[in-house]
Specification:
Layout (H helix, E strand, L loop, with lengths): L4 E2 L3 E9 L3 E8 L4 E8 L7 H15 L9 E7 L2 E7 L3 E3 H8 L4 H20 L12 E4 L4 E3 L28 H4 L6 H17 L9 H10 L5 H4 L5 H10 L11 H12 L20 H32 L4 E3 L8 H10 L3 E9 L10 E5 L5 E3 L3 E8 L11 H11 L3 E9 L8 E5 L11 E9 L2 E3 L8 H10 L3 E7 L9 E5 L5 E3 L3 E7 L4 E3 L8 H10 L3 E8 L9 E5 L5 E3 L3 E8 L1
Parallel strand pairs: 11-14, 15-17, 19-22, 24-27
Antiparallel strand pairs: 1-2, 2-3, 3-4, 4-6, 5-6, 7-8, 8-9, 10-13, 12-14, 16-17, 18-21, 20-22, 23-26, 25-27
């Protein structure tokens, strides 16, 4: 088996555990480059279709339990005849090994461990998963001291009767609740009873009920009261003993009703505060019993005990070997509407249980139909038992852009969206302040209550005064504007009034308050503009003036006496001469001939 690769991804490299149902290997996840634990179920379980159906369903359910006190399930599948589960690999030891090697655990540490187990159970119970096999073997203490519970929803009995199915005796005899021992329906309070047994063992070093015969152990859970832990070790604090005894009450109604309640009492004990659990007498026993009355009842109690033992034995054997009496086969509900599924089950004497929503991600999927069921079809159930189903639902992202922030949030929460992220963004238009300016996902997209919706809401821009940079050197002006948080654009322009390299003007004007991050444009002088003086000799006076003005020069006319009549009215001389470079706007003197 070592070296084998499952799903072309998980390479087994070391066997780290073995049990009646599976072997556990340390493996490398070749895709993510990490170590994982792979539990490989023994091949004989693959021949039981009912077992495989429930294995698939409950492996999927357990994979959704993401909690720091629960060993995560990453993946599951099968390779030929082998079914496997890929789990988080954590270094450490299970609680059974610790108790075996080190003995009893100090009360404070035992309470801490039990409180962390409660946290794991509370999380699982909120997700409608009952562990059903809480025992030291399934509690892992990491090398850092963290508590992790494993094997949520994973099969522990290979009897073909399912995994966590109502009506099937499950769990390890020394830790099962009275209702489990009798094959009755269980809930989260059954896990609390088992945790009470584990806490009892941590404090005393032994389980409250034990015997080579599982039937005898089952009978004791149902009919006998445990020896109080303080009888075994008088130093066990009375308040902690009260918590143990309340958790192990025979009647579920007398236990802690939730794991959260038990955790709260454990924390009160650790903080030295009074606990809600009070020392209770064994159920069914009064404070004082007259000796004579006790003698008259002795034979009656003995007879009742024998009768109860026979009842428990009968229930256990009937459930294990005959399936618990007259049963009906669960029909295939997939593809039916919720109402069709209800009617179909009622026609067989079964009951539609919890209806879980599964929101579609593809518009081509059909809405309002059953896509999975628990138990799977083909499972045998007693009449009156429940079948839970998952039904497809559709939720589309509404258009909330343009709405006020509060209105948009209200619309989304009424729709069922639970995760809304608000991002503020400065806007130029004052009308957009407090308004949703964009959204993600876009309107019309398929979403679910778990979808993270992002709303961008407009807020007023931060405004700051623009520094005065007119007259500064170009680089100094740019640096000053950028340090103030503005973007800068630079233009150039010739100027005979402002020295080259200095700022002529800016926009926006100095000291005007504008949004931080806005763009400021500055115009930098390139110095005076220089032009080449055109030649205008022999041009008429008017033509010469036009030519000079066209290039930005100012003509100044003078007269000069000539002897040649053909030169009259024409330019006979100019200053500066043609081809010289002068500043734009300079005067050019032209001399026009006259007699």
């Amino acid at each position: 088996m070592l070296g084998r690769v499952f799903n072309e991804r998980y390479r087994l490299k070391e066997k780290i555990g073995s049990g009646g149902m599976a072997d556990v290997y340390l493996a490398d996840d070749l895709l993510l480059g990490r170590e994982v634990a792979v539990k490989v179920l023994h091949p004989q379980f693959a021949s039981d279709p009912s077992f495989i159906q429930r294995f698939r369903h409950e492996a999927q359910a357990a994979a959704n339990l993401n909690h720091p006190n629960i060993v995560n399930i990453y993946d599951w599948g099968n390779e030929e005849e082998l079914y496997y589960i890929v789990m988080e690999y954590v270094e450490g030891r299970d609680l059974k090994e610790i108790l075996k090697n080190e003995g009893r655990i100090l009360p404070e540490r035992a309470a801490e461990i039990a409180a962390e187990i409660c946290a794991a159970l509370q999380f699982a119970h909120r997700h409608n998963l009952v562990h059903r096999d809480i025992k030291p073997h399934n509690v892992f203490i990491t090398s850092l001291g963290q508590v992790k519970v494993m094997d949520f929803g994973i099969a522990r009995e290979g009897n073909g009767g399912g995994m966590t199915q109502t009506g099937v005796v499950m769990g390890t005899p020394q830790y099962i609740s009275p209702e489990q021992a009798q094959g009755l329906q269980v809930d989260g309070r059954s896990d609390i009873y088992s945790l009470g047994v584990v806490l009892y063992e941590m404090l005393t070093g032994r389980v409250p009920f034990d015997d080579p015969s599982p039937v005898t152990v089952a009978y004791k859970h149902v009919r006998e009261d445990p020896v109080p832990p303080s009888v075994i070790d008088p130093e066990i604090p009375p308040t902690l003993e009260a918590i143990v005894m309340k958790a192990m009450a025979k009647n579920p109604a007398n236990r802690f009703q939730t794991a959260q309640e038990m955790k709260a009492d454990l924390l009160r004990f650790l903080e030295g505060m009074p606990v809600t659990a009070t020392p209770v007498l064994p159920e069914g026993v009064t404070a004082t019993v007259p000796v004579a009355a006790a003698e008259r009842r002795r034979w009656g109690w003995a007879a009742a005990g024998v009768a109860a033992l026979l009842v428990v034995i009968g229930v256990v054997l009937a459930l294990v070997f005959s399936g618990g009496g007259a049963k009906v086969e669960v029909p295939n509900l997939e593809g039916m509407s919720e109402e069709q599924a209800r009617q179909t089950l009622e026609g067989l004497g079964l009951v539609l249980g919890e209806v879980e929503d599964q929101y579609i991600e593809d518009a081509s999927q059909e809405v309002g139909v059953v896509v999975s069921q628990d138990p799977e079809w083909g499972t045998l159930l007693a009449k009156g038992e429940k079948v839970n189903v998952t039904v497809t639902r559709e939720m589309k992202m509404p258009r909330v852009t343009g709405m006020g922030k509060d209105e948009a949030e209200e619309v989304l929460r009424e729709l069922g969206v639970r995760v809304i992220e608000i991002v503020n963004e400065e806007v130029e238009d004052e009308d957009d302040i407090g308004i949703v300016v964009s959204q993600e996902p876009a309107s019309g997209k398929l979403i679910s209550p778990k979808t993270r919706v992002k709303l961008v809401v407009g807020v007023e821009q931060t405004k700051v005064a623009v520094p005065d940079v007119v007259g500064l050197e170009r680089e100094e002006a740019v640096t000053r504007l950028r340090d103030a948080g503005f973007q800068v654009s630079v233009g150039e322009e010739a100027s005979s009034e402002v020295a080259a390299g200095k700022v002529i003007r800016q926009s926006p004007l100095a000291n005007l308050k504008v949004a931080k991050g806005s763009r400021v444009t500055i115009v930098v002088s390139t110095g005076p503009a220089m032009v080449e003086v055109p030649g205008v000799i022999d041009e008429t006076a008017d033509n010469a003036k036009d030519i000079l003005r066209d290039v930005g020069l100012k003509p100044v006319q003078h007269t000069q006496v000539v002897v040649d009549p053909s030169k009259v009215g024409k330019v006979v001389n100019q200053n500066p001469a043609a081809g010289e470079m002068v500043e734009s706007g300079s005067n050019v003197h032209i001399y026009v001939g006259t007699l």
